[in-house]
Amino acid sequence: MPKNRIYLCLAHMSEAGLEQKFIQEAFDTNWVVPLGPNVNGFEADLEQFVGEDKRVVALSSGTAAVHLALIACDVQPGDEVIVQNFTFCASSHPITYLGAKPIFVDSEKDSWNIDPELMEEAIKDRIAKTGKKPKAIVPVALYGMPYDIDRIMEIANRYDIPVIEDAAEGFGSRWKGQVLGTFGQYGVLSFNGNKMITTSGGGALVCPDKEAWQKIMWLATQAREAYPYYQHEAIGYNYRMSNICAGIGRGQMTIVNDHINHHKHVFELYKELLKDVKGIEVHGNPDERYDANFWLNTITIDPEIRIKGQENAYKTVVQGAVGGAAGVVHATDSAHTDCEPNDNVEALRVYLDERGIEARPLWKPMHKQPVYQRVESSELRVESLSDGIVCQTSDMSVAYINGVSEELFKIGMCLPSGPYVSDEDVKYIVTRM
Ligand SMILES: *Cc1c(COP(=O)(O)O)cnc(C)c1O
């Protein structure tokens, strides 16, 4: 990727070039396959990093990790799974892959993550309406911020529902000193190109014990039985990480703490430099239990603040998809949707973009995504529950909404935070705001 711009979070290799050394070893020993010494070594590094006696399976993506965790929690067609509404689609799409339904739960104001009280209300309402408990609960460490895992676990345990932590953005974030991904039954990690560390593409599932680890390993390698020929008694997946990617991962594990410290340092700089800028607030840890990795630093912008060029916001149609994803062929002919960031947020994004700075809106809440609002025969149903809570039901999902994620989406923005973002860059960015 070119470096003449300041990006949100670009992949960054170790100074010692250890990634290439591990890859070279894979070639030299002819381990160019989805298993081998680098995969085992990377898993051992990850187990040491997360601690708590967990076992880890390295996989081809974080999305695959979510998918396998749901299968391990016995999610079947027609089941329901609670998932944070304010998230990236990889938290919820695998629920749909399984023919199950995401039950989106909105966020609390401080952490921006799943609201535990609303989550319990959703569980009760699902039991009342369907007679069945949701099969799993998926909280998400959005932008690396921890969720209130004490309250989530207390409620989940009371209803005996397993928790799958989506810590894809929160690798190395901690709650009361303990690494995220180690509290629930399963923990999802991602090593996509833009995450805290990368294997170019990849992920991992943190498992509670050897038995669960074996089952995930078996599912990730096409569920093969122990015969001299291919014998299949269950449907499996080709989700194991390649030995080449794992070589990059082993190199990255030598600098993971440097990366985390750098992201935290960039957060401190933004906080300090923006503290006197009226109308802009930097999102920080709500209290001392939270220890975010600040994978992406985020701000909110007062709707009253006027930004230069605001009158022209949304006048041009964006070319290509956000994130520059390969293979995106869906062009749009309108610059607007029914739920979008405020004009001043879009104006600031364009202004920064023109000055070589990549900024991005916050993730659009799932209950506002057309794919999850789809209805065939009737209307999208919106029902009012207690104090300002609404329940939105479509063919694809159900959502328990308190307004927090939609409000944040309208006023929020992600700023460059990765290993290439220097102190000078942060000062440059801030003086442009
Ligand atoms: C990145 C991400 C994932 C996993 O994504 P992959 O790109 O498949 O590794 C899952 N959940 C969230 C919230 C993410 O941001």
Could you give a quick summary of the protein structure above?
With 433 residues, this protein is an alpha+beta fold. It has helices spanning 18-28, 37-50, 62-72, 93-97, 116-130, 149-159, 210-220, 243-253, 256-274, 343-354, 370-373, 404-411, 423-431, and strands spanning 55-59, 80-84, 101-105, 137-138, 164-166, 174-175, 178-179, 186-190, 203-207, 280-282, 290-291, 297-301, 360-361, 381-384, 390-393, 398-401, 412-415.
Structure overview:
Helices cover 33% and strands 14% of the residues. The strands form four sheets. A six-stranded mixed β-sheet has the order 4-2-3-16-15-14. It is globular, with a radius of gyration of 22 Å. A hairpin with a 4-residue loop joins strand 15 and strand 16. It has two domains: 238 residues, Type I PLP-dependent aspartate aminotransferase-like (Major domain) (Aspartate Aminotransferase, domain 2); 175 residues, Aspartate Aminotransferase, domain 1 (Alpha-Beta Complex). 47% of the residues are buried. It is an alpha+beta fold. The site of pyridoxal-5'-phosphate (PLP) has 14 residues, from helix 3. Pyridoxal-5'-phosphate binds next to helix 3.
